[in-house]
Amino acid sequence: MEGTSEPVLDASSRVTNQLIDFQWKLGMAVSSDSCRSLKYPYVAVMLKVMDPAGQVKSRSFEMTIPQFQNFYRQFKEIAAVIETV
Amino acid sequence: MLLDLSEEHREHLAFLPRVDSAVVAEFGRIAVEFLRRGSNPKVYEGAARKLNVSSDTVQHGVEGLIYLLTESSKLMISELDFQDSVFVLGFSEELNKLLLQLYLDNRKEIRTILSELAPDLPSYHSLEWRLDVQLASRSLRQQIKPAVTMKLHLNQNGERATEVLQTDPATLLHLVQQLEQALEEMKTNHCRRVVRNIK
C-alpha cells in the first residue's frame, strides 16, 4: 500500500471491495463547542476503498486511544495467525 | 383568470347537484380535512352507503372538489373569476354560492398547505465544532498543525443528515468573512429596493 500507485487486483476483487489506501493521523482535540478546554488525543483513519465495479470511495473514522489499542491488537492477532498458516 | 376545467373534472363534479347542499357542505369539509391530513378511503365507503351510490362516485365528487379548491387557491383567483369558472358547470345558484363560500373560507389555509409542497433543500439544523491539533500522520511526524473539525447537522424532508468537514483556521476565517459579506449584501440599497418591491 505504501508507495503503490495502482491497485493490485486479484481474484477476490470481483466480489469484495479492495483497500487501496490507508492514511492515518494522530491529533489532539483542544476545544469544542460543548467543552472549551479539552485534552483528547485520537487517531483518525482515512481509507480509500474500491468496489468490484471500480468505483473508489473514501471512508474516514476516528478512534480514542483505547479504541485504537484494541484495533492494533486485532491486527497483531491476524499477523500471528498468518504466521501459523 | 378563469379556471379551465377538464371534461373528466366536470364529470366528477356533476355528482354535486344530485345531492342536497348539506351533503355538499359535508363533502367540502371532508375535502379540506383530506388536504390537511391526507385522504381516508373509508370515509368514501360510509358516505356511498348512506347516499346509495358507488364509492367511486363519492370519491370522484370529493376529489373533484379538492382539485377545484386547490387550483383556485393556487392561482388565488378573484371571487368574480371563481364564480365565472363555476358558472360553466351549470349548477344552481345556491350550489354556486356554497362553492364560492367554501373557496373563500378555506383558501388561506389551503395556500399555506400548498406552500409546504415546494421542493425542500437541506437546511441548517445545528453545527458542532472541535479545534484539533494534528501531531503526526503517516507521512510526517512531530507536527503541530491546528485544524477545525465540524459536524453540520441538516434537515431535509423531515429527516436528519450530517456532514463532517475539516479545515484549517485560515480557511475558516475566509469562510466566516465570506458569510459576513453575504449578510452585508442584505443592507445594500439594491437588495433593500428589491425586498421592498416584493412586499
Sequence-ordered SSE layout with sheet pairings:
The complex is a heterodimer of chains A (85) and B (199).
Chain A: E1 18-32, E2 40-50, E3 56-64, H1 65-84
Chain B: H1 7-13, H2 21-37, H3 41-51, H4 55-75, H5 79-87, H6 93-115, E1 123-137, E2 145-156, E3 159-167, H7 169-185, H8 189-198
Antiparallel strand pairs in B: 1-2, 2-3
Helix pairs in contact in B: 1-4, 2-4, 2-6, 3-4, 4-6, 5-6
Walkthrough of the structure:
The complex is a heterodimer of chains A (85) and B (199). Chain A is of the alpha+beta class. Chain A has one helix spanning 65-84, and strands at residues 18-32, 40-50, 56-64. Chain A has a 3-stranded antiparallel sheet with strand order 1-2-3. The longest helix of chain A is centred in the C-terminal third of the chain and has 20 residues, at 65-84. The mean pLDDT of chain A is 87. Chain B is an alpha+beta fold and 199 residues long. Chain B has 8 helices and 3 strands. Chain B is elongated and about 85 Å long. The model of chain B has no long low-confidence stretch (mean pLDDT 89). In chain B, helix 3 crosses helix 4 and helix 4 crosses helix 6. Chain B has helices spanning 7-13, 21-37, 41-51, 55-75, 79-87, 93-115, 169-185, 189-198; strands spanning 123-137, 145-156, 159-167. Chain B has a 3-stranded antiparallel sheet with strand order 1-2-3. Chain A binds chain B through residues 22-34, 38, 41, 60, and chain B through 127-138, 147, 149, 164.
